[in-house]
């Protein structure tokens, strides 16, 4: 009996510290953070190549609160600001017009299975542009509804300039404020059974609020679409490929979307590998 009591006492003493550690465990944080980095054969934004069909290194971060509030940032190399002569080229300006930085914040929630996402996004392009060109920096507000694997989203410009379309293009006119420019899109990410492969489907419409369309330059508005496949692997690695195209052609291409003697809205394919932490 004595031996049994001693044994029980020893076992109890050994077990006691585990209860102390459990009681002292730190509570779960109300914040979550994630990071991503990817290598793409080119950077495509709303159907338009931003890197003249050349490779792009991209990365970003997201911080979210359990309330639904979130903030984030993302960046990629670009070349279109130099390709269309908006930003000067040369050793002195080696950093200007070669980078895009996006900063955003918003609120996400779900009601009766419907996802709601509201937020604001600032596109920023460091560097000094050439005289006579409008600002590339652009501010948008956005709202999205999602259900299952389908999402509908609209983004509206609230800045006077929108990616180089703005006040200076029509010098002497007052009707070239780009506020009201919007992009409407439908997206679907469809998992293909248990393969780990997801099909990507997208169609979007970019509408510019430009008085200059009433003068001598054709409206720059256009429609784009995308189809693709992605596959996820252990460790947060994702690889994929997609095909994009637009209806940009004729005078619209010549006057608005021909950079470095190339229609940046032509059909093209992109492959990528991405890692999420």
Provide an overview of this structure:
Mean pLDDT is 86; it is low at 1-23, 169-175 and 212-216. The strands form three sheets. Strands 1-4-5-6-7-8-9-10-11-12-13-16 form a twelve-stranded antiparallel β-barrel. The protein has a two-stranded antiparallel ribbon with strand order 2-3. The protein has 277 residues and is mainly beta. It has helices at residues 2-23, 80-83, 250-256, and strands at residues 31-40, 44-45, 48-49, 56-65, 69-77, 99-111, 114-124, 138-147, 150-157, 182-191, 197-207, 222-233, 237-246, 258-259, 262-263, 268-276. It has three helices and 16 strands. The longest helix has 22 residues, at 2-23. The chain starts with a helix and ends with a strand.
Count of alpha/pi helices: 3
Mean pLDDT: 86
Spatially, the strands of the biggest sheet line up as 1-4-5-6-7-8-9-10-11-12-13-16
Q: Which strand-content bin applies to the residues?
A: over 45%
| Sheet having the most strands | 12 strands, antiparallel, barrel
Structural class: mainly beta
Radius of gyration: 25 Å
What form results from the Cα inertia axes? globular
What is the H-and-E element order? Answer: HEEEEEHEEEEEEEEHEEE
Overall number of strands: 16
Low-pLDDT windows of residues: 1-23, 169-175, 212-216
Oligomer: single chain
Distance between the termini: 56 Å
């Amino acid at each position: 009996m004595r031996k049994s009591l001693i044994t029980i006492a020893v076992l109890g003493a050994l077990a006691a510290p585990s209860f102390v550690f459990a009681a002292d465990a730190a509570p779960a944080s109300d914040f979550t953070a994630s990071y991503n980095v990817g290598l793409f054969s080119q950077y495509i934004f709303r159907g338009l190549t931003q890197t003249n069909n050349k490779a792009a290194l991209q990365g970003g971060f997201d911080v979210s609160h359990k309330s639904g509030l979130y903030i984030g940032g993302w960046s990629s190399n670009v070349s279109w600001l130099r390709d269309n002569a908006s930003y000067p080229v040369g050793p002195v300006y080696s950093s200007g017009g070669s980078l895009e930085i996006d900063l955003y914040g918003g609120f996400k929630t779900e009601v009766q299975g419907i996802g709601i996402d509201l937020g604001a996004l600032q596109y920023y392009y460091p560097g000094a542009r050439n005289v006579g060109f409008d600002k590339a920096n652009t501010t948008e507000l956005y709202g999205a509804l999602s259900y299952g694997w389908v999402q509908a989203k609209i983004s509206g410009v609230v800045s006077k300039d929108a990616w180089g379309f703005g006040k200076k293009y029509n010098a002497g006119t007052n009707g070239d404020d780009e506020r009201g420019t919007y992009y409407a899109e439908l997206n679907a990410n469809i998992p293909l059974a248990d393969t780990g492969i997801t099909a990507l489907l997208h169609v979007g419409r970019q509408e510019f609020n430009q008085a200059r369309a009433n003068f001598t330059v054709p409206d720059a508005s256009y429609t784009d679409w995308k189809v693709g496949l992605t596959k996820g692997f252990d460790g947060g690695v994702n690889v994929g490929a997609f095909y994009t195209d637009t209806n940009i052609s004729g005078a619209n291409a010549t006057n608005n979307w021909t950079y470095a003697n190339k229609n940046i809205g032509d059909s093209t394919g992109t492959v990528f590998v991405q890692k999420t932490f």
